[in-house]
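User: Can you help me understand a structure? I only have the sequence.
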Amino acid sequence: MKTSARNALRGVVSRVTPGAVNSEVVLRLADGVDIVAILTRRSIDDLELAPGRPAIALIKSSFVILAKGDNLRTSARNQIAGTVASREDGAVNSEIAVDIGGGKTLTATVTIESALALEIAVGDPVVALIKAPHVILAVE
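Assistant: Let's start by predicting it. Here is the structure, written out as tokens:
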């Protein structure tokens, strides 16, 4: 499978919470690292998502918001703590790789202005924020 999404994170479905139209799927990426996706019930049925099923979370790097500090209050369902592994600056944007543990890396693309304002540097602790509807799940 090839995709334009910078983030393709493999995991195993740990929970499916059904809803009338949309349902919540929790994908375990590594010990202590989960990501929540909101999908339609039809998509869950079509993909045969159930606990124990391997799946891949696809997330565009521009959907990943980075924050620094503790006790963040935000509506983003996914708040994944990690450490900045690399930062590559361009004329307009910075591509920042975040080590989230378990051998997994999450890539964020933020404006260079934001990267400078947050003073993001390799080794810094950060929190990656991702809205659950921005997570696309795929199966093989």
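Now, to help you interpret it: The helical segments are 41-47, 112-118. The chain has two helices and ten strands. Let me know which part you'd like to focus on.
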